[in-house]
Every structure is written in structure tokens, then in C-alpha cells.
Amino acid sequence: MIRFKALLFAVFITSSCNQISYKQIVPLIKEATIGASVMPITQDIIDSKPYSFIKARFGKGAGVIMVLASIDQSNLFEWVSADGERLYTMNGKILRTTGLPYNINYLNNMSPAFYSKKTITTKVKLLDPMAYVTKKLIPIESRKELVTINHPEPISTTKHIVRSTFEELKWSKDDIYFVDTRTGFVIKSIQHLHPNLPKLEIEYYLKF
Amino acid sequence: MIRVCNSISLRSFFLLFSLFCSIEIHSNLKDYIYPKSHPSYSNYGTIGLIQMPSARSLPEGSLAFSWSDNEPYQRGSILAYPFSWLETSYQYTDMENALYSDVIEFSGTQTYKDKSFDAKFIIMQESKNLPALAVGARDLAGSGYFSSEYIVATKRIKNIDYTLGLGWGYLGEDYTNPFIKIDESFRNRTLESDTTGGEFNPGSYFSGPMGAFAGIEAYIPYAKGLRFKLEYDSTNYDTEGFSDPTNPFFLYEIKPSSSKINYGFVYPVNDSLHLKLSYTKGNTINFGFSFSANFSKEDSPLEIKEPYKPVEDAELWKRAASEKNLYAYRIALDQLGKRRFYLQSASLNDDEDEIEIAYTQSKYISAGRAAGRIARTLDSTMPDKIEKFKLINLNGNIGMAMIEIPRAAIARYEPGNNTSLLKREVKITEKVYDFNNHKYRPDDTLPKNLSKITPAIRSQVGGPDGFYFGELAIAYHSEYVIKKSFSITTVATIGIYDTFDDLKLASDSILPHVRTDIVQYLKRSRKAHIRHSHFNWFQQPHKNIYTKISGGILEEMFSGIGGEILYRDSFSNFGVGAELWRVQQRDYRMLFSLRDYKTTTGHINLFYEEPKTNILFSIKGGRFLAEDSGINFDIARSWPSGLRMGIFFSKTDISEQEFGEGSFDKGFYFNIPIQSLLGTYQRGLTPFGLRPIQRDGAAVVNHQFRLWGTTDWKSSHRHFETWNDFYD
Which of A27, A39, B210, B265 has the most CB atoms around it within 10 Å of its CB? Predict the structure, then answer.
């Protein structure tokens, strides 16, 4: 959306300007109107990466590769992009971010469970602007449903839906986790982190 | 005892801490409960309530566009905020209840187009107990159809912005003017509405009876920033605009106001785009939108993520560079080239502990960032014996200031990103760049032609025939470099689609038609035309003197030959120059043929850049294209991001009658850095300029590559104002 705003302004400003070259303006228009083309993850890409990685895609963006930088004692995974953005996940659930336009940090109740039969309440620090809010994760649905994920090879998964709310902001979205029925690992998730961010879709490619 | 004291202090601490946290949480949650809460625009086009102004403004460096359909007016406004305390705007109003001209046959179905300037000064910012206070004027130098002044106060209490104000002119006439007690001349107001206009009329400001207005802008919680507006409207609609049936322009009577209460909603789609809908006068529905963005910071409105990429295998390169000076030069050439710094020449001798390089680049606006990236690349790859880097930026093959950076200081201050300490050790010197003094140079492949094809837009904005006329074309850009300091630049276009058919207003100027034949130029050149094609020869005969000679098709309306000279010292905020041109008017088809009109034009140019505010004052005195003589003033503020906002006005020895509509030449412009629109570092700027009306008086040759702009990095101030970017 930010890029679309800039494009609008660019169109207005180009009344006396031709310095935006053809090569630049065409991807801009395409990205602003129909979204960037999704980066496919081929077997070659998977094979070429020595470490675990994820493909993270905000809204209609193209998606970026983030590599696994570290795993701490509590099994908190740190994923880093080439531009320095960082996601910290625990069993697929994002607990902290840095380097994004808007960031979050779970302050307590770092439950490893991404899905629980009970409602989980936790404090979350929102950044940019900063505010402390109460987050509730309400289980909605957990079905033993076979879903085919867009991995190079189809994988059988279980789909869990968790309603994520910030009570003070009257904000509520449904997060979805797809869990590999064979390994128990989350292989894909759609999470809503921050009121000002679009949904974040992640595909996990674990190499262990 | 100690334990008790500790217990109390601990409890007090937690109480205070809890209180502090609760305040902070409460205040920060507001940003989410009432998001996108920057001020919104009125139907009039400036920041305000629905029809009434408020005392709000945007941060400095903001630009905005506002449009509203407010029967019988459709109004487009361009707004600029050179300071956080100043809102300036240019309004273009299509007045549907009046004819375009007092000659019905000429008007056809065209309705009247009004242009005006507004200004609002925030004389007191809002504080905890006091409101923001502003003084402003509408239609300052236009035809006077909306001429009014106001004093207004605005205070935010919880989620409501309260506004209370007094208005003069069309903003009300219900009360006696209190300024009469100061001077009797405030008693009567002379409303001079005419169709030539363009002059300031300070004698009428804040005079005559006044009105009072008030209103609220209520931010609705959990509604994505939606606001509700309610106001008491003091506008005197009975006399506003074209209300007199005897006026030859008058077309129809507008609906009389049946209510002084207006209400409406504003919905922010995002931080920049606002939609608005309102109900005014008790009988009129209005709608519109506004768009605003701040370009004063390099990372706004788009974040740029292009960190410095360290040299891979740096130690291997450094080892190779230590073997031979030639290798060191080639490694520098290669590694800097990968980072889009193009090495033009270098000096590196066995008996010296320094390397001097001359480079060109078109990627970074920030001189500090460019210096930092070059210095770090050299630090990673050059032999250890090198203790100092000397960097000369070239533009048009003329040297700007030379920056001397001690190598050891780069690493010393990097951990804390301590650019201010680094700056103390950096030295800026001046010298004449001569590549013959440098031992190492890339192979000369000149002459060389650099060309590209791009889409192009040609526009006529805010003219009397309509707000916008445009042409979409394909443009061929060529730079034929014969010598490093001598090149021929050409831009030629082929038109694809245009809306110029509707342009019809012919020039009525009694001066030579040096600019007012614009309609002829636009209409007759639409198939194909040459925008410019001329040679440029840059020289630097002295460390502080720069010259340029150009000849050929200089600009859209004139061909000729001439030159410019500039004296500019790196450490002075002053500059002085001169230019002289012998030109002949081009044919309307804008190819190679010429018209009969020839003239000689020239000016003395004075510059002063105030370093704290980055305001550049330029004065140009001499003979103009229509052979009138006088002075042109230009005042522009710039930001390290590259954004520039400016106004200009001229006064020459022709009378107001000779000048024609508008009375004297004036206008505004802004240059927006392209990188703000694309999210990657780019040095280019998108220029936008507008005159309320283009006349022939005070016109200058629009030659390319003016020396003051070309030598921008000559200024030491330009380097140090962006020095914080060194380690970025």
C-alpha cells in the first residue's frame, strides 16, 4: 500500500518529469495493482540452502527468504533476512520481530504450544508506535484434515485455526497453522502480528 | 528500621512505576485506537474543518494535494509545508456558476477558472494548556473571489479537536471589527474582484465586518481513524464568488444557504490518503479526497534498505593490492564500480602514503553516505601503507571539493557510529581537478553515445483552459560524450496520445511572444519534436571558478549559444555568477527551423545559502528574453533528503498592463527525490513547477545543467550536513 501511495504521487509529479525509467515504472505499477509475483521454492533452491530457511510473505508481497540463524535453549528459532529483518518463532508461532516496519514482542507466557484447547492470554508489546496490549489466543478449530500445501511435494497436514485478539484495540484475526502429520512440525502458517501489518504467510523448510 | 524504609520505598516505587506504565500504556494505545490521526483537509483545500480553517498544519517537508467537489465549485489544491509553522497552497477552482469569459461566444460551455494563493502561519504551537493559534489568508494574490483572512485557535481535548476562529472578508460579516479601535481604516473593506488580479492587496486585509466560526473534529474510537466533523459556518455565501447577476461572467445563482451548521466525515484510507464527505449550507452534499506525504527524510515515505555491502574476500584483495600500485588501482576500480562509484582517475605513488581518486556517481543524494561507502571499500582493499584517502567527486568532469579522510579514523569511530568525532579529523580542500595529474586512468573509449528510450509526459497544468492537459510520448535520450568535459545532450520525442485539442486560448500579450505561444508549441509539435539538443563544455579554470558554454537547441522555445560563469568557494555560503545568451525563437513545430525573433539576454546571478535552515536565496538581475530588464528573486528551502521547495517572483521595467494578467511573474516549485518514490537510492529529482499564469515578462532561457546546481557538492556544508550517513 505504501508503494501504491508513492505511485499515485509519482503519477501526479511526472507532469514535468520523465526521469523514472520504463524499467522501474512497470514493476511498480504491477506490484501496486495486482501484487508482486510469488517467488516459487523449487527443489533446486531447497538443495542449494545448507541450512533451514523460511519463505515469508507479507500481504501481496513477493516474499523473502529468511535463513535460520540460531536456536536457543528454549527452542526459539531466529530467522534472518538479507535486509536484516528478524523473526523469532517457537514451533511456528512468531513471538518476536525486529527490523519490520511494525514489530511485536511477547512479554510472557512464551508457550511452546501454537494450539491449545484453552484460551491463552499473554502480554504483548507493540512497537512503532509502542503500546502494551493483552493478547488472547482462542482455539477455534482443529481438524484432522488433509491439506495439500504448496511445497514441491504434497504433504499431509492438520489445520489449526486460532483466533488472535488484542482486547484493548478491539482487533481480532484468525491465524492458521498447518502441521505436518508425520513430523509434528508446522510447515506453513498464516499469522497476523500487528494491527498495522498485513497477514504474514510463512512456509518452513526445515533441514534436520 | 532499614527494612521498613526499604519496604516503603519499594512500595512507592511500584506504585509510581504502575502509574507511569498506566499513563504510558494509555497514551500509546491512543495511536492504535485513533490511528492515522494527522490533520485533515477542508473543502476549501487547506487543513481545517469542513468549510472553515483550523490552526493545524503538517510537519515541515510535507507536500499535499487536495480535491473537492463543493457545488458550484470543483477545487484542486497543491500544498507545501516549508516549515512546520507555515502552510502555503495554490488553489485552482472551476466555478461552474460563471462563464469562462465575458464573451459568451468565446466561452462556449467552458466555465470560469479561478487561481489563488493561500498562506497560514502557526504563530503558537499547541501546549498542554493552550491551543494552537494561527493567522491565515485565503485568495491572497488571486482574483479576490474568495478573499478572506482569519485568526483561529485549535485545542485537542481527549479525542476531540476544538476549533474557534474569527474571519474577515467572505468568512463573515456578523460583528463589528474590533480593529477599528486601532485604526479607522479597518472599518470598510474594498472587495476588488476582477479577472486580471495577481496583486497583493494588503490595505484590505482584516478590514470590514467580521464573523465568528467554531467546530469540532471528533476522532471515533476503534473506527480505523474515522472522524466526524461539525462546524458553525460563518461564510457569507450571498456575496461569495459570482453572486451578482449583472456581472458579465454570471451564469446562474447558487443555492442560498439554509443552515449555518455543516457536518461531515473524513476517512483515512492510510496515513496519506483521506476521503471526505460532508453536508453544507443545509442543502449541499460535498465529497473529495486529499493526499499528503513527507519527503524531508531520506527514508520517507518509502523505507530504503540498501545497507553497505562489505567487500567479500577483502584480505585477498588487500594482499594483491599490496604487490603493485597498478593492482591496487585496478582493485579500487573494480570494487568501487560494483558499488556504482565510477573511478575516473587515481594517483598512487610508491613514496606516498595516500591515494587520491576522482570518481563520478549518480546513486547517492547524500554526500556523507557516498564518502562513507567509498572510504570503507578502500579501507577493506587498499594496501596497509596507505594512511589517507582523498576523494574528489566529478560532475561534468569538473571537480568538486576534495575530502581527505585519515584511514585509521574510519575503523576507530565505526563501532559507536561516531560520525561527529570522525568529522573532526576529516579535511575538505579545494583544487583544480586535472586528470593529467593522476597516473592511473581507465582506457579512454571516447567518443561514446549513451542513450535510452523512456515514456514521457508533457503537461500543461493550471492553465486558463482547464486544470490539466497532457501528452503521452516516447522519448529518446542521448548523451554523446566527445571529451570528458564536452558532450552533446539530446531529448527527442514522438507523441502517442494527447489532450491538447481543447487548448484554445491564444496569446494576448503585447510583448514579444517568448512564452505565451505555449498553446501553439504544444499543438503543433505533438507528432514529434526535439526538446533540446545542444553541446555542453564545462571547465574549471581556477579552484573556485567554473564555466559552461552551451550551444544548439537550448530549450523548447529557443535555440542559441551562450555561457555561464560561477565563482563558488567550498567554505562560503555565497556565490556569484553571470550568464550571457544569444538566442533565436524556435518554430512551433519544435524541430530545426526558427522564427524571426532574436535577442541577447544575460544576467548577474547572486547566491546565498543560509546553512541552519538550508534556505537558498538567489537573485538574478539583467535583461530577460522579451528584452525587459529587472530582477528575479528565488527563495528555496532544501533538505538533506534532496527535497526542495521554492518560490520565485520577478519585477522588470514593464508596466502591469504590459505584463498582462497576473501583474508580475511569480510561481512556486518543488523537487521530490526519486528515491522517496522508489525505495532505492537514486540521485535524481522529479521537478514540478507552476506559475499561476505564464506571461512573456521576466522569462529566462531554460538552459540545462546550471552551474550552481552542477557544483552542489562543492559546498563543504553539503558534505557535513549528511555526514551522519557515513557508516550507514
Answer: B210
pLDDT in tens, A142-160: 887 766 665 667 788 888 9
Q: What angle do CA A162, A166, A170 make, to 5 degrees?
A: 110
A74 shares a domain with A11: no
Q: Which residues contact B230 (CB under 8 A, 6 or more apart)?
A: B215, B216, B218, B261, B262, B263
- DSSP 8-class letter at B721: T
The total number of structural domains in chain A stands at: 2
**B492: three-class secondary structure by DSSP:** strand
Nearest Cβ partner of A18 from B454, B676, B688?
Answer: B454
Give CA separation, B597 vs B518, B533, B560, B583, B594, in Å.
15, 20, 12, 9, 8
- Domain holding A151, by residue range, is 43-205
10 Å Cβ neighbour count for A43?
Answer: 10
Instruction: Give the range among B441-450, B602-611, B635-644 with minimum mean pLDDT.
Output: B441-450
Q: Mark yes or no for CB contact A22/B453 under 8 Å.
A: yes
Q: Which helix (H) or strand (E) holds B676?
A: helix B675-678
Distance CA B610, CA B293 (A): 25
Reported as a single tens digit per residue, the pLDDT across B72-110 is 999 999 999 999 999 999 988 988 888 877 777 776 777
Residue B192 pLDDT class (50, 70, 90 cuts)? low
Which residues make beta-bridge pairs with B427?
Answer: B404
Residues A29 and A53 in one domain: no
Ordered by start, the domain boundaries in chain B are 34-294, 318-361+369-439, 448-717
3-class DSSP state for residue B424? helix
Contacts of B456 in chain A (CB under 8 A): 18
Residue A141 is predicted with a pLDDT of 83
Q: Confidence class of residue B564 from pLDDT cuts 50, 70 and 90?
A: very high
Q: What is the mean pLDDT of residues B547-555?
A: 97
Closest approach of chain B CAs to the CA of A207, in angstroms?
27
With a CB cutoff of 8 Å and minimum separation 6, the contacts of B278 are B43, B50, B229, B262, B263, B264, B265, B285, B286, B287
- The answer to whether B674 contacts A6, with C-beta atoms less than 8 Å apart, is no
- CB-CB under 8 Å, B222 with A13: no
Specify whether the CB–CB gap between B153 and B189 falls below 8 A: no
Q: A11 with A92, same domain? A: no
Q: Tell me which of 3.30.390, 3.30.300, 2.30.30, 3.30.9 is the CATH number of domain B318-361+369-439.
A: 3.30.300
ω into A101 cis (within 30 of 0): no
Give the three cell numbers for residue B441.
586512468
Range with lowest mean pLDDT among A60-64, A132-136, B276-280 = A60-64
Give the helix/strand (H/E) hosting B328: helix B325-338
